[in-house]
């Protein structure tokens, strides 16, 4: 009887398991939220001074070597509503990206998207224009999510529907970029840089069977590190091109 029952159980089709990819804890998103809010306090007291020192002014970058503006502009906001809208978007998208990519990949994507957006602003906006805000970096997070769900569209349940929602959101934000006082180049550059950075840093998983079937993260590969390096090199070349064309 024992041998017969064993044979019968072995002949039954295996029940497919629905496994979940592992997720990272959220820390870096809250740090970025805190930094943006902290920087906004002196902006309330010394608006013109903060804008003049840290806002993105292409002329300051290209002719006076004020390279820090490419980063600092992403932490300065033009009013409480501007800050509130961006921080809400960072809270939603940042936590999602950090859970999937992990804190270091998340910060890499955020930084490269911030630089990518501000480099296009420096290249195409009027020399004396002023640009502030984290929108480019945040839309870079959106681009990274597009990259992730496109890559895993066959493995993740509901990924295609979620991907369509992300693409619709991206299109809406690009349209918003056409409005006055909104940086189209910052939005577009940040989104493209985030998309490329996301493709370069998409986490990889391995299936482990013991003590039970589950996925674990694979360590970063040399290919991933090379992708990040090439993207950073691309930002550097874009900066050099900007200086050559407009300097």
Give an account of the 3D structure.
The protein is mainly alpha-helical and 247 residues long. It is built from 11 helices and 2 strands; from the N terminus they run H-H-H-H-H-H-H-H-H-H-E-E-H. The protein has helices at residues 2-11, 28-45, 47-54, 58-64, 69-72, 80-101, 103-124, 135-151, 159-176, 184-201, 222-246; strands spanning 205-208, 214-217. The chain has a two-stranded antiparallel ribbon with strand order 1-2. The protein is globular and about 60 Å long.
Short description:
With 247 residues, the chain is mainly α.
Give the helix/strand layout.
Elements: H1 2-11, H2 28-45, H3 47-54, H4 58-64, H5 69-72, H6 80-101, H7 103-124, H8 135-151, H9 159-176, H10 184-201, E1 205-208, E2 214-217, H11 222-246
Antiparallel strand pairs: 1-2
Helix pairs in contact: 2-3, 2-6, 6-7, 6-8, 7-8, 7-10, 7-11, 8-9, 8-10, 9-10, 10-11
Specify the structural class.
Answer: mainly alpha
Q: Biggest β-sheet: count, sense, barrel?
A: 2 strands, antiparallel
- Going by CATH, the homologous superfamily would be Rhomboid-like
Order of helices and strands: HHHHHHHHHHEEH
Poorly predicted ranges: 1-15
The CATH class label is: Mainly Alpha
Number of helices: 11
Assembly state (oligomeric): single chain
Head-to-tail CA distance between termini: 87 Å
User: For the residues shown, what is the average pLDDT?
Assistant: 87
SS elements, strand count: 2
Strands ordered across the widest β-sheet: 1-2
Q: Please state the second-level CATH architecture.
A: Up-down Bundle
Number of domains: 1
């Amino acid at each position: 009887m024992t041998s017969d029952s064993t044979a019968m159980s072995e002949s039954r089709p295996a029940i497919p398991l629905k496994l979940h990819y592992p997720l990272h804890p959220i820390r870096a998103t809250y740090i970025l939220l805190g930094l943006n809010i902290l920087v906004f306090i002196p902006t309330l007291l010394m608006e013109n001074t903060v804008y003049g020192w840290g806002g993105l002014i292409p002329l300051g970058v290209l002719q006076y070597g004020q390279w820090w503006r490419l980063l600092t502009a992403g932490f300065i906001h033009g009013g409480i509503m501007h800050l509130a809208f961006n921080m809400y978007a960072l809270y939603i998208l940042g936590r999602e990206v950090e859970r999937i990519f992990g804190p270091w990949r998340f910060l890499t994507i955020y930084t490269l998207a911030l630089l990518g957006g501000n480099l296009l602003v420096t290249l195409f906006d009027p020399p004396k224009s002023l640009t502030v805000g984290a929108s480019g970096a945040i839309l870079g997070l959106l681009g990274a999510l597009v990259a992730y769900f496109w890559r895993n569209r066959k493995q993740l349940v509901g990924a295609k529907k979620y991907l369509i929602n992300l693409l619709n959101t991206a299109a809406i934000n690009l349209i918003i970029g056409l409005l006055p006082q909104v940086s189209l180049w910052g939005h577009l550059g940040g989104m493209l840089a985030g998309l490329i950075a996301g493709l370069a840093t998409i986490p990889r998983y391995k299936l482990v069977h013991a003590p039970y079937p589950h996925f674990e993260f694979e360590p970063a590969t040399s290919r991933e590190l090379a992708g990040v390096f090439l993207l950073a090199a691309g930002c550097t070349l874009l900066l050099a091109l900007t200086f050559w064309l407009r300097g």
